[in-house]
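Hey all, sorry for the wall of text incoming. These are the three entities for the joint prediction.
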Amino acid sequence: MPPEFDNPGTGAPVPTGAGAPEAGLGLEADGTRIIAADGGDGRQGAGPWTIAWRRLRRDKMALFALTVFLLIVACCLLAPVWANHVAHTGPNTTHTLEKLHEGSETKEVVEPSGKAIGPQFFAAGGRFFLGADGHLGRDEMVRLLYGGRASLFIGITAAVITTILAVVLGLLAGYYGGWADAIISRALDVIWSFPVVLLGIALGIALAVGGLQIGPIHLKSSSLWIPTLIIGFVTTPYMARPLRGEVLGLREKEFIEAAVAQGASAWRIMFVELLPNMVSTIIVFFTLNIANNMLLEATLSFLGAGVQPPNSSWGTMISEGFEALYSQPILTIIPGTAILLTVLSVNVFGDGLRDALDPKSKVRYEARAGTTAAEPEGV
Amino acid sequence: MSATPETAPVTPGAGGGPLLAVDDLRVGFATEDGRLQAVDGVSFELEAGEVLAIVGESGSGKSVTAQTIIGLTRSPNSHIEGSVRLSGEELTTQSESDLQSVRGSKIAMIFQDPMTSLNPVYTVGRQIVEAIRAHDSSIDRKSAHAQAAELLGAVGIPDAERRVDDYPHEFSGGMRQRAMIAMGLALEPSVLIADEPTTALDVTIQAQILHLIQDLNRSRGLATILITHDLGVVAEVADRVLVMYGGKVVEEGTLDDIFYDPQHPYTWGLLGSLTRLDQPRPHRLPQISGAPPSLLNLPKGCAFRPRCPHEFAKCAEVPGLEARLPGEPGHRDRCWLPPEQKRKLREIGGRIGLEEPA
Amino acid sequence: MARFLVRRLIGAIAVLFAISVLVFLIFNVVPATNPAQRIAGKNATPQLIKNVEEEWGFNKSLPAQYWTQMKLIFTGKVVSYNSHINIDKRILEGIPATASLCIGAAIIWLSFGILFGYLSAIRAGGLTDRVLTVVALIGISMPVFWLASILLYYFTYKIELFPPSGYKPLSEPREWFSHLILPWITLAVLFVGFYSRVLRSSMLDVMNEDYVRTARAKGLSSRRVMTRHVLRNSLIPIVTLFGLDFGAVIGGGAIVTEYMFNIEGVGLFTAEALKQQDFPSIMAVAIFGAFFIVLFNTLVDVAYAYLDPRIRLGTAAA
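and here's what came out:
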């Protein structure tokens, strides 16, 4: 055999024929670890995760976004602390007839006209930090923190559900092919060709009346699990379809053929050989899913098909605030900004993560980008 | 065996100076893992009607050299030094728009994979018309289209009048490469750069394409740079050969120099791995052990050292590209071994080859 | 081409059927309460519930129920028990408003999405790209109803630049236009962000294609390489997306925008039905929406075939 020559033949502005450094990086196009040919350089030890981490660490914007997101999560987790020790009230406690004493001044929480008090910040010792929420006079800050818990819970849990469903379906369809693939793919197609919002609404409203009965488990119609399950379910095709495609591609690779030849069980091939090679895709989708889920939750809740009373989320807060848009726009702006900041931070971080995990972006260097975009939701 | 400077003492061109002169060309790329020196001081000259072959493995810098000649490697993260002169005119410092008028019209380039080198959404004819009209917008579409059909006929595409309106996917691989050549010839360039033009093709088609290139070279006096990893291809058409390794030229000479009196062990390895019909088939073709070095981290001294079975102390120093054979100023190499010793070492079983390291 | 169309048509009908089954299941099998009661509405008398049971076939087998319900919807006889109006008629009446909203928004999101994506890609890594990336991500991350609230508050109330919400028919062009500007922007913003990201990444992929190098090697100007070769080939995924998204917004996806701006289209009707938990209406809208999505999906495939000759000519795609 002559020595292996292959010309990668990529186009400018990327250096062509620069095949050797590729081998040195020990990264194949699909992010699998390959044993670098001994090129006499000391870099072949750098695995894909090390490279991804090195790249992510350099992406200041993504790290900033991650920090913002973690701060928001921490604040929402600390909601009871704020409620009990600073605001001294609960998210659903009404203060309609109360008065606030700020030094020598006395203010009504809700004026006789129905207009609620605006942001007080620390003037009243942290009570009504962001004002009250309309004629019921509930503490907006406390509601915001508790609402955030619901929104984040749904966003993250639904992403976990989607990921589990999508990975299992993608593996089964991609690995077995044939009938399993035909059934799974067609079912995903049907759900996919349905507007996410419309499907979410239909399910939400169908379950909002009597709750959900799955075998012995009964979920009350007000349970946060109902919107969570709905969102987890309706977004599954958007992740399962690309994962199936990735499995199809990986199946053709030699290491899978080798495993099959060695008589490895289907289970082993799917979860030990295939799954680890899909991790970077899964991570990126999972992250972007959280952002999309939170927007979808807000939309469903806004339309009355998501979080049901007595629970509240940022979506329901905007829905309530919208009714007083012209007299108290702040009640719409506050929860809306909270959603925007959270979703934006997740999206920016997810974008950076995708760049870091995308082996192609190393070649692009200057032109780093790439969108494995998930569908937009909540129009 | 004098230490000649890097400028190549080849035969001067007829009309004062060579057609294409590349002098000490260096191309580096900024990558995440540091600077990658893809081409490191390459010099050569090309006369009208000559076929120069550049041979090497992937990562040896041969394709980058070729693409740099017409400025395709220009980008914010590339760094280009040295000079490329076409009929005395410097190309490396030309503006992008000036270079555009050179590309295609004075220097044409065809690429390795004809399957992906044509845009799938336009007809073949339209892509040739586009090339013609890019350089001379006074030609109307209709006559450009007729010219495209004529060109396709000239490169041997049957029924060219009709096939000119086909899409690339309706062409076979060999026909696509012919179409690529037709596109390259559209503006009657003086230089054709063929970057692995036959690698992606079937063996029988390879020969046809090579003969086409050879014909064009003879009939039109088209100076040709042929980039390949395949010495078999070189043997068929080249006049002169550059062997590249790790971004540098390690040996250069005439076709006969390289095939019958190769000086660099890397060249021996390349020759040894050729299947030859004039000798009994060996049980196993010898190969060069190891892999090409990473351009980010080249070995100190001679870049081929880690893979060379004949390495000795002197190899820790970088060898210059020098004429080491008396009376052969055009045959130069980068190997410290004395020529007499080379003659002995390269003989393996009655033919030239590179022995396996112990 | 004819065979291709027939195959696509059969596929479309199959998907439509599957969707109608899905909708049927959602409203008749998934909920844990008596479906007749839900259809009859919150304040139904026992007699009304009995009538509904009969009309919708709840006393029959599931396939029979499915058949009865689809017959009601597709023959235009489905009536809301809450508002006593014919739902199919109401949907049809809403189409001009919904179409005005969606077509206008689509023009905006396509033009700006492509413009931003193009600028971002050709300046990849530069300042323009970075700014546009942030803008696009903000667009993608913005809740639509929130953007609508802000626009309404500032542009129709604080400074009365635009008329308050509502819809004016096309017969009054100026009014029609001025009432639709804010809804168009609202609906388009998310897609502008999304499309510019998709186009950018698609273009960066295409830039590495061999045929782009060929185009450069034959001496085309950078602009021509970018538009005729890179952009042209990068638009293929955009066309796919556009078909899906346009089908989705016109098929009821613009619920929030219509609701916020009080545009009397299909979406507003859906939102009202939701607030009243009016099941027959939501069911009909869902089927109606699915119809449009499947329709545009099919159109996309045809457009795709036009854009990519490999598919048009029925040869295997590379």
